[in-house]
Amino acid sequence: ARGKLIVEDDLFDHLKAHPKFRAALDTWWTYPDAKEGRPFHRPFQELPNLVMTPHVAASVPGQRARAMEAALENVVRFLRGEKPRNVIDPTEYGVVGSRDRRR
Asked: What mean pLDDT comes out for the span 15-29?
């Protein structure tokens, strides 16, 4: 998903408060020039329960084809009246509405 789907402060606070919770980020909230600094405002680099990569997940061999196949499979499932796979229910995470999601 794109970085703006996640509220940066909420994620940081959750990771800090729950060290057993793990996260991996490959997309970011902003994409500054190298001289402008990091693509986040909180000190995520200090968290031991977070893995960060520089938006390269699509560069993994075969990943684009697998993503397209999964998306097309979900379109077919939807057209058949079936539930798409891998749908995430935000209420399962207990964070829906914790802050303004329209930022």
From this structure: 86
